[in-house]
Amino acid sequence: MTGVVHIGIAIGLFIAFFKLFRMLFKNFIGGWNDLFHKQLDLKNTKPARKFMYYTVLSFVPMILYLIPAGKYGNIYSVFHRVSYNENLVGEGICMLLTGALIIVTCSVMDKKLNPVPGIVQAIIIGIIVFLAVPTAGCSVIGAVFCTAIILGMNEKNALRYSVVMSVMILLVMGIIELCTAVTKITILSAVIGLVIAAAVSFFASKLLIFVIKDKKLRLFGIYDAAIGLIILVIGIFQVVVK
Question: How much is the pTM?
Answer without folding.
Answer: 0.88
